[in-house]
Structures are given as C-alpha cells and as structure tokens.
TrEMBL record:
PROSITE patterns linked: STAS
Recorded name of the encoding gene: spoIIAA
Boundaries of every STAS domain copy: 3-113
Protein's UniProt name: Anti-sigma F factor antagonist
UniProt keyword terms in alphabetical order: Phosphoprotein, Sporulation
Protein family according to the UniProt entry: Belongs to the anti-sigma-factor antagonist family.
Record's function text: In the phosphorylated form it could act as an anti-anti-sigma factor that counteracts SpoIIAB and thus releases sigma f from inhibition.
Annotated organism of origin: Paenibacillus mangrovi
A Gene Ontology BP annotation from the UniProt entry: sporulation resulting in formation of a cellular spore
Signal peptide interval: none
Length: 117
C-alpha cells in the first residue's frame, strides 16, 4: 500500500491528512512535502490528521519529531488528531504525547491550538 498526503492551510496552520502507510518507503516524500509547505507558506502551527492512516513505523515517528522541532523553532505548536488504536499505541510508547497534544478530530485540534476562525 502507498501513502496519500493532503495539505490544507487554515489561517496560519497547516493541516496534513495522511492516508495509507507512513513507513520507510514513504517517510522521505512526506518529509519533503511538509518541509516545503511549511517553508513557503505562512505556517506557524501544524495539525497531523491520521484518520485514514492504517500503519506507521519508526520512520514515521522520525518525520513527526523532525516537523515538531521545525514548528517549535518557529514559535508554533503542533498536534495530532484522529489516531487509530494501532498508531496510538506506537505514538504513546514513543512518548510523543508528552510533548504534543492529541485530539479526537481536526476541529478540536484547531481549537486546542487556538487557531479557530
């Protein structure tokens, strides 16, 4: 299976919707797409929606943590939402939820980051 990435800017927040599998085969592509979009847009905050993400491995964690550092260095905030049980376990075991919040859906994530219009 492959990965589909959908990017949407909402005010100063980049919403990233991932579908499929975020693994060592797709991590570099995602990294490049996110970095390009963050650098060229007026992106301060980042929301990662995993609603349709079926699988993630440690390469995916690396992508998330790298973007977290990038957003944090710009003074922004980052959150994840719509996480299924398998991906939740990986994120929880990695300690990711100690540095960024998790929300049930995009609307709550935007509210939590205080970027709702």
């Amino acid at each position: 299976m492959n990965l589909h990435v959908e990017l949407e800017h909402h005010r100063n927040t980049l919403i990233v919707r991932l579908s499929g599998e975020l693994d060592h085969h797709t991590a570099d592509l995602v990294r490049l797409q996110l970095d390009e979009s963050i650098q060229k847009g007026q992106t301060e905050h980042l929301v990662l929606s995993f609603k349709n993400l079926q699988f993630m491995d440690s390469s995916g964690l690396g992508v998330i943590l790298g973007r977290y550092k990038l957003i944090k260095s710009k003074g922004g905030k980052m959150a994840v939402c719509d996480v299924n049980e398998a991906v939740y376990r990986l994120l929880n075991m990695s300690g990711l939820f100690k540095i960024m919040p998790i929300y049930d859906n995009e609307g709550q994530a935007l509210s939590g980051l205080e970027v709702v219009s």
